[in-house]
Design brief:
Elements: H1 8-30, H2 39-56, H3 59-65, H4 68-91, H5 110-141
Length: about 150
């Protein structure tokens, strides 16, 4: 017989703090090309919000919200967004990640296209960093066997 310890105060605080933490992370990602921050910092904050849930609940709770398969998809999606924007720039005849050329396919001027390209890169980096941070933490916390943590 195992005794399951649940701290209501910690879980309630975690449940209340997680949405503002994630909202702040999205703010850091979205404003990364105008102010300090960006994809890496926002991705770390997003990953930390999931790590907070592991501390307050357990690995099983995070696995319900972000399965390993979904986490792998997010890792890949971030890299695809980043490299896809660079590949589009190459296809359009510019250098890799030369966002100014994106005005040919976007209905904006080159300056605005550069800003949108940077935002796309920041989003891709943020998604990839978040997923990798979650994966690394879950692997370390469970000794590499977090997939079997639910059984």
């Amino acid at each position: 017989m195992t005794i399951e310890f649940k701290d209501v105060i910690i879980q309630t605080i975690c449940r209340l703090l997680t949405p503002p933490i994630q909202l702040y992370a999205l703010y850091v990602i979205a404003h990364g090309h105008y102010s300090p921050g960006g994809g890496f910092q926002g991705g770390c904050i997003l990953g930390a919000s999931f790590i907070l849930m592991v501390i307050a609940y357990d690995i099983g709770e995070v696995k319900r919200r972000m399965a390993e398969k979904m986490n792998t998809i997010f890792c890949s999606l971030g890299v695809i967004i980043y490299s896809g924007i660079g590949a589009i720039c190459l296809i359009l005849g510019a250098n890799y990640l030369d966002y100014g050329i994106l005005h040919k396919i976007l209905p904006v001027n080159p300056v605005r296209a550069r800003a949108l390209g940077t935002l796309g890169i920041e989003i891709g980096v943020g998604i990839a960093v978040m997923a990798v941070m979650i994966s690394i933490f879950l692997n370390i916390a469970s000794g590499g066997e977090h997939e079997g943590a639910l059984e």
